[in-house]
Specification:
The protein is built from 13 helices and 27 strands. It is an alpha+beta fold and about 475 residues long. The chain folds into 4 domains: about 40 residues, no CATH class; about 100 residues, Thrombin, subunit H; about 90 residues, Pdz3 Domain, CATH 2.30.42; about 100 residues, Pdz3 Domain (Roll), CATH 2.30.42.10. Strands 21, 22, 23, 24, 25, 26 and 27 form a 7-stranded antiparallel β-sheet that branches. The chain starts with a helix and ends in an 8-residue tail after the last strand.
Length: about 475
């Protein structure tokens, strides 16, 4: 098949030389037959995914819609009041996407945003058979997910290519269900590699393939293939209103993530706790750096590994375990590749001198949204205060503690009268420096069946409450 297609590049020239007076060029005919055969080769392992979620409350629905518009670069139809128009009645959200069969056991690879809010997932194979699917694992940071069906008979498995060998100009074929049109097949090229500046919500890792093969809503999670029928990427996003601007996750990223999702159901990553930017020429000049490599630290989150290791704003992280850090994104990848609890050696540039600092990493919460909401304990979700939050809330700059970002109705925290927006400053009469400190004190001081003092600030006023610890409380 590849031998038939590799001459396509000459088709424009040779098409003007017909085989007979009114015939069709054999090269064009071979090319056409090659694409027909390629469609027959790849379509069996491509699936349609139809999801249905729970009926959302208005706030959740509006937040989800805002994310959807940002994810696909679509204009947000806001009214003059600055908000999304409220729907007349809540309805269970439905969504369609695509995916491809990963193995004979029925695992299917797709995008996280296709299935993350689904209560039910229906998978339709190319032969028309439908199966209910279950989520095996999700990784919001890369927007990858694995679902599974129980199908009878052998399943056609997608062959995986090598995205590290891709070059701009190579042919690319997108297959999926755009706008619900199952089995759609579009042809184009790889337009660029390493795209990392897309404003996609929740994604920490962006290293996308750009293609001009037609991708539309519904293609999400479907394969981007090469001329050998191998999957080289997973369609993820488009730029709404632009022609031929689609993006895909490189298949080599999926090769790393998918086996772990299948075996562990989640991805665990190291966490440092700094706000960073790239070192441009201005930062380098002001810092006295000899080059523009590294990650400039703008903020250090209280109670995080970076805080415990005394990292400071204006530090520039130059190396991790002796390996040079090229950029802010490079630092995120290097730290995320370390397991939680790992001890890493950082080389910093501080006040025109290179110093080394040892840091023990925590576990990252799993996505930007989860990290912001915090981990649930006793019906509470909290996150460390940042200088930006302190300034925005107009509280004393020296205030330390954790911001309550959520309280579950009917929980121990709810019974104690705690509210979203409270700032917890003490647990068991000990000061709370940040989220790590908060969770540590809860684990150390809380006794199942007993009560625990919680000191907090609300509306600028200090107050104290008591939270009752259930006998069967999970305080991990």
């Amino acid at each position: 098949m590849r031998s038939a297609l590799k001459f396509a590049v000459f088709a424009v020239v040779l098409a003007a030389i017909p085989a007979t007076a009114f015939g069709v060029s054999p090269i064009l005919k071979d090319m056409e037959n090659g694409f027909v055969g390629l469609h027959e080769q790849v379509s069996p392992f491509v699936v349609n995914i139809d999801t249905k979620g729970r009926v959302p409350d208005a706030a959740t629905n509006m937040e989800g819609m805002n994310d959807l518009f940002r994810f696909f670069g679509m204009p947000n139809p806001r009214g003059h009041g600055g908000g999304m128009p409220r729907p007349r009645s809540p309805r269970a959200p439905r969504a369609q996407g695509s995916g491809f069969i990963y193995d004979k056991e029925g695992h299917i690879v797709t995008n996280n945003h296709v299935v993350e809010n689904a209560d039910t997932i229906t998978v339709t194979l190319s032969n028309g058979k439908e199966y209910e699917a279950e989520v095996v694992g999700r990784d919001p940071d890369t927007d990858l997910a694995v679902i599974k069906i129980e199908a009878e008979g052998d399943l056609p498995v997608a062959p995986l290519g090598d995205s590290s060998t891709l070059k701009v100009g190579q042919f690319a074929i997108a297959v999926g269900s755009p706008r619900g049109f199952e089995g759609s097949f579009s042809f184009g090229h790889i337009s660029a590699l390493g795209r990392d500046s897309l404003n996609l919500p929740g994604l920490r890792f962006q290293n996308f393939i750009q293609t001009d093969a037609a991708i539309n809503l519904g293609n999400s999670g479907g394969p981007l293939c090469n001329l050998d029928g191998e999957v080289i990427g997973i369609s993820i996003a488009i730029v709404f209103g632009a022609n031929s601007l689609g993006f895909a996750i490189p298949i080599n990223t999926a090769k790393e993530i998918v086996p772990v999702l299948i075996s562990e159901q989640k991805i665990t990553r190291g966490y440092l706790g700094v706000g960073i930017v790239n070192v441009n020429s201005d930062y380098a000049e002001a810092s006295g750096l000899p080059d523009q490599k590294g990650a400039f630290v703008k903020t250090v989150q209280p109670g995080t590994p970076a805080d415990r290791a005394n990292l400071m704003p204006y530090d520039i992280i130059r190396k991790v375990n002796g390996d040079a850090v090229e950029s802010a994104g490079d630092l995120v990848r290097r730290i995320s590749n370390q397991p939680p609890g790992a001890v890493v050696m950082l080389e910093l540039w501080r006040k025109s001198e290179a110093i080394e600092v040892e840091v023990t990493l925590d576990e990252y919460a799993g996505s930007l949204q989860e990290a912001a909401r915090g981990k649930d304990i006793l019906g509470l979700r909290v996150r460390s205060l940042t200088p930006e939050m302190v300034e925005e809330m107009q509280i004393k700059s020296a205030t330390k503690g954790v911001l309550v970002t959520g309280v579950e109705g009917g929980s121990e925290a709810d019974d104690a009268g705690l509210l979203e927006g409270d700032i917890i400053t003490e647990v068991a009469q000990e000061n709370v420096a940040g989220s790590d400190d908060f969770y540590r004190l809860i684990r150390e001081k809380a006794v199942p069946g007993k009560s625990l003092f919680i000191g907090y600030i609300r509306g600028g006023e200090h107050d104290i409450t008591v939270i009752r610890i259930p006998k069967d409380a999970d305080l991990k």
